[in-house]
Amino acid sequence: MIYVCIPSHDEAPTVGLLLWKIRQVFAAFPREYHLLVLDDGSTDTTAEVLEPYTRVLPLSVIRRAQPQGYAASVEELLRKAVELTDRPKRDTAILMHADFAHNPQTIPDLVRRIESGADLVVAEGQLEGEPSRGYRLLRRYAPTLLRGVVAVPGVKDLVSGYAAVRLVALRNALRSQDGPLLHTDGWAANAELYWRTGRYSRRVETVTSVERHDLRTRPTRVRPWQCATSLWAARRILRSTPVPPAPPETAPRREAEAQAVT
Length: 262
Known about the structure:
Elements: E1 2-8, H1 12-28, E2 33-40, H2 46-56, E3 59-64, H3 70-84, E4 92-95, H4 107-115, E5 120-128, H5 133-145, E6 163-166, H6 167-176, H7 187-198, E7 204-212, H8 224-240, H9 251-261
Parallel strand pairs: 1-2, 1-4, 2-3, 5-7
Antiparallel strand pairs: 4-6, 5-6
Helix pairs in contact: 1-2, 3-6, 5-8
C-alpha cells in the first residue's frame, strides 16, 4: 500500500485537482494506494471541495477545527499511515503538498526507488515559475543554515517537502522518540523529518522533480527573511533533541556506505 499524505490549509483551488491527477498517475502505474488529506483548520471551501472525492477515491480526510501548523499536520498524517499499515516493511508513505507545486508524475519514480530497496527517497526540486529571487536563494542555501546540525548523506534539497519513506523506517523513527517526532516547523520540519527517518533507513536516495510555483492560485506564503531566521533558530531546537544512535540492523550498512564515500 502506498499512502499519499497531503497536508492542506486553504488550498481549495488546487487540492481537488491534485487528487485527480494522482488518480490518473495510479491508473497508469497500477499500485494499491490510499490518499490521506489533513485539512488544517481551513477557512475557505476546502472541506466542500474534498467531500465528493471521498465518494469516488480511496480517500480519508482528517479535519481540524483550528490550525495547528505544517509540522503537526505532517506528523499526524505519517502516524496515521503507520497506524493503518499491516505491512510496514513493504508499504510506503509519500509526503507532498496540496498547492500543486509538487509534480504527481514523480510518484512512480519515488515508488520504484522504494521497491528497489531504498527506505527514504527525497524529491529534490527543480524550481520553475517562482518569481522571487529571494525564494530561489533561500531554497539553494537552506541546507547551509542547518549545516553541522542536520545531515542526510546524499541529499542536497533538505527542505523540499516531497519524499517517500518506507513505513518500517518511519515506525522505528517514531518509536525512538519520546513525544513528537518533529520539534520544528515549516521548512525545518522537512529537514528534520529526513534527518530522523534517514537514521533508520538502510539506503537513502534522491530523484529530481520539477517543482512548479506558477500553478498555485494564491500568493506564496514564504517570506524569505523570516524563513531564513526560522531555519537558523531551528538549529538550537534540533541540537536539544538529537537523533538516537542508528539501530544495529541499519548501522553496519550505513557505516559501509560512509566508508565508500570517503
